[in-house]
Amino acid sequence: MNSSDHDPLWYKKAIFYETPVKSFFDSNGDGIGDFRGMMEKLEYFTFLGVDCIWLLPFYESPMKDGGYDVSDYYSIHPDYGTLEDFKEFLEKAHSLGLKVIIDLVLNHVSDQHEWFREARSSRDSPKRDWFVWSDTDEKYRNARIIFIDTEKSNWTWDEGTGQFYWHRFYSHQPDLNYENPELREAVKDVVRFWAGLGVDGFRCDAVPYLFEDEETNCENLPETHLYFKELRKMVDDEFPGIVLLAEANQWPTDAAKYFGDGDEFHMAFNFPLMPRIFIALAKEDSLPIVSVIAQTIGIPDNCAWGVFLRNHDELTLEMVTDEERDLMYQEYAKVPRMRLNLGIRRRLSTLVEQDRPTMEMLHSLILTMPGTPILYYGDEIGMGDNIELGDRDGVRTPMQWTSGKNAGFSSTDPEKLYSPIVTRAPYSYEIANVETQSELNTSFLNWLRKMIRTRREYSETIGLGTISFPKTDNRKVLVYMRNRDDVHLLFLLNLSREPVSLHVELPEFEGLKPFEARSNTPFPAIGSDPYFFTMAPRSFFWFQLRSDENGEASD
Ligand code: BGC
Q1: Which entry of 158, 205, 264, 360 is annotated as an active-site residue?
Q2: What integer best gives the mean pLDDT of the chain?
């Protein structure tokens, strides 16, 4: 099965699920997840109802940055299996109707990559120009340092050749030089290789940083956009149907530019929205969400935001104001170890202290916002984190499958696991695990599965429709509509910790009734006055506005 056989806009209606191969399931008892393990668990994705798996980097790597330090783009890290295992995994995923996108780390490589080894072997090396070198570390001073907890400069001295090399992330991750035409082509060849194997797309890592320019902060430069347009054209021509998803953690207008005119990325993470969801929650005020949506709509029709709550990194607070960052730390990271760089290294369930109504409301939000929801493995069972682990490892612990040994992740001795299992109540594997929650009708896992199924009934409207914000008299409730043709969906989310009442102005819908989307329960008809609602703390409603009970329940 090839992605081009399908609806070309599939990614706008889909639900994505992010997981590291390492953390999902260990098939050979060495304490590390692998491709055969992923294969054994493929039915889990269909059970959950997601459409596309996003795999974190699984390439050969010294693993000093969770595999984002690639030392060979063409081979699988031996801990995870072989290329044959990968191909089999992909084939089986496709046979179950699942798509697979893979991480493409294209801004930098590991200092162990052959390209860099060659480049640093001599100033005359043919690969020298594939990296960015300088006699001084004074260049590009306006470029910020991203990993501020570990790096002091974006330049590192290379003793052997007596020059500095440029890196936006760890010093062991030299940046590639996109000014060099051979390098540009070499990266396209990497794309060709994996696309040729049949992957459905690429999550492109750290896209804003490809080029440098003295007069700028070295982010989002016009040359960077040109390169991605080139890459897009290449995949459209050679591998139609392949989807490109941008990781551009930027302010709204800069992030949206990665869609180009519909000729650059198909998708980009909605980094502007993500922290503002948590800010809105802390402030019990819908305004931060409404205003960021206003700044991020109006993208080309063939593009989609990727809407997420958490991922494998810290909850990044680089693109918020100082005041907003203080509020976030105050609300969600009181203990210093919870912070990392400019962010918070916690999982969703610990951020909201496993408050079930809040977890439901937040998921209800990402399932219905403009864009494609992207879930992070383990969040569907309220898995916890471990802030005692270094870097971002605390949010990358083994998936919790059962209440048995090693949470059912691996048969090895617990000491041999790549990471300890989360054992702290109430996030521990004894309760937060797939088996226990599958058997419990009222579990968060089963709640989410039902919501995913309900969303599927409305995926045309939610995936392709517009958003509007009816007038209300209570900013504590986020009220929005998703509209497409004659389907009108109304969503209300009470961000407050208290019960609330509110009026919603729905003049164009007078005479219709709100039908609760999951149960199809009719509410009283909309009259000429604003509609009155009462809501429990942190509760939500999904309605379809229809003329009568017998009308179509979905689109
Ligand atoms: C990835 C991080 C990684 C960094 C450097 C990112 O933005 O998401 O996990 O550390 O790129 O590759």
Answers
A1: 205
A2: 97
